[in-house]
Design goal:
The protein is of the alpha+beta class and 156 residues long. Strands 1-2-3-5-4 form a five-stranded antiparallel β-sheet. Strand 4 and strand 5 form a beta hairpin. Helix 1 runs antiparallel to helix 2 and helix 2 runs antiparallel to helix 3. It starts with 28 loop residues before the first strand and ends in a 7-residue tail after the last strand.
């Protein structure tokens, strides 16, 4: 069963087939991280390094926030099997950030009150991606994906 919200694509799982339209240097990358708080920073470094390699420096700040929120949510599931972090270029105009874990517990976007100390993460992801994020349920877990638009090149 696949659940996709907010305009995301249903083929958002970590495994990805051949995509001839995506440049070779934009090959997908995935890493497996332990369930420890320091893995959130490792996920940020991993995604930002790939964006810099692809020349997408302008997306690094938003991608850092997104992967931090998704990895933090993954840590909070209580699952200890694995946390996978991936970054893809499904098209030249999209960067997809993925965080997978062994829990089938779905993320929930809540309305955090002014005094709340948590609960704003998915709202930030929603805002930064313009609603292009979603969840793919797997037999033994899930993958949460978030898509960032790649700005069009500026004509010279």
């Amino acid at each position: 069963m696949t659940l996709v919200s907010n305009g995301g694509r249903s083929n958002a799982g970590l495994p990805q087939g051949s995509a001839a339209s995506v440049r070779a240097r934009a090959a997908p990358m995935t890493t497996c991280l332990p369930y420890r708080p320091e893995s959130v920073a490792a996920a940020r470094r991993f995604v930002v390094a790939k964006l810099l390699e692809w020349g997408l420096d302008d997306l690094a700040d938003d991608a850092s926030v997104i992967v931090s929120e998704l990895a933090t949510n993954s840590l909070r599931t209580g699952c200890r099997t694995r946390m996978l972090v991936g970054v893809r270029r499904p098209t030249e105009r999209v960067v997809r950030i993925l965080v997978g874990d062994g829990s089938r517990s779905l993320p929930v976007m809540v309305q955090a009150g002014p005094g709340a100390t948590s609960g704003r993460g998915l709202a930030m992801v929603h805002r930064l991606t313009h609603g292009r994020w979603g969840v793919t349920l797997l037999p033994f877990g899930k993958v949460v994906h978030a898509d960032l638009a790649v700005p069009a090149p500026v004509p010279r």
